[in-house]
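Q: I'm writing up a methods section and want to include an example of the input and output format. Could you take the sequence below and give the corresponding predicted structure tokens, formatted cleanly so I can copy it straight into the document?
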Amino acid sequence: QYESRKFGELARTTQAQALMGLFLAGNDLSPDALDGEAREVRRIGILGAGLMGAGIAFVSAAKAGVDVRLKDRDFKSLAGAVKYLSGRIDKHASRLRLSDFEKAAKLNRVTTTIDYSGFESVDLVIEAVFEDLKIKQQVLSEVEEVAGSDVIFASNTSSIPISRIASGARHPQNIVGMHFFSPVDKMPLLEVVRGRQTSDQAVATAVDVGKRQGKTVIVVSDGPGFFVNRILAPYLNEASRLLVEGVSIEEVDAAMRAFGFPIGPFELMDEVGLDVGAKVVPVLEEAFGDRIQSTGVVESMVADGRLGKKSRRGFYSYGKDGKRKGVADEVNKLLGVVETNTLANNEIQKRCVSLMVNEAVHCLDDQIISRHSDGDVAAVFGIGFPPFIGGPFRYIDLIGVSAMVARMKAYATEVGGRYEPAAGLVDLATLGGSFYPTSVEAKPAGHDPALDTETKVQ
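A: Here is the clean output for your methods example:
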């Protein structure tokens, strides 16, 4: 009886409702975006054998069960990718208790090349080359020279609009975005991006392949940063602003971990690579201006050779084994920062998260996502937004839409115009509405999960 009563109480909490909502939304993603019939994909060509390309090769061969042709410029890069693949397949086989024969069969699905031999028979090409528009357009042109006219070309770009990449292509209807997250074998989300001329069949094929690779797939419309990186950028940017204001790296990271993120923003930038951020921010700044205006922190770090974990020097320093040792002593000196500002955890959390959730509403207003539930799933699976809160839109509902607008307007006056609330948020507050139906256990308006001990992750 006690167990039954407690289960009933638990099932009515906001945390349980958030998690159940994620489960249901994750099984019903973007159904209105899939009007085409997926093409059968038996062979995939992958351009770029770095960590991203090798990771895509692993999930394609080991999980989707398709043959992979992996191309890079030199044999050294390909040898590194094969070594990585072998290690990942060993772990995969051990977990699934596969025989040596089954393990070898998965590895043998991947062949390598330094030219385009074999690409004439692939059904899908996924490029994972440098985040540079000219390079991506160049490899697209090369693929169109050697592959069939109906081959689907998927770009793994982090921020460049697919329609820009497709500009000048022979078959723009076959070009789609497949934005994987690093590390590919661990991050569950895949953003499939529909360009202005992308066909329904190309989108449906990319979604089908992503699901076979074991991914949770959302379909988004084209635009700088798509959805995930677009909402992530102002969050990371605000963390950098706090650093410039004199709040320590450790304080910011600890505050966001206490909120429920698996790692803090500076830890995340080190993991992804500061050079990647330096490529993405200008694209978003050009599109959205002051909302995502660079602080210059990332650029200064990259100019000093601090690329993050990959170079063992970032906001933190790292040992040869890749383990984090601590905050790099030279960072504050490099950036001209004096740690004089101590903010409460709740204040750090509100400043960083408020910009993220506000940008999510901008994305909904701009029809980058078709439903708010898709945005919540993407944020949880792509960024690590606390699942027990449920995503940016459920967070707004927990706070209360009107209270969220009031918070944003106050910050816009006190901190900067980048906090101006999104039009969709203001309109919803005016109507007295919410993104989700009001829960029977809903918290009062103005409730902040960051202050609720029930939602803290220890």
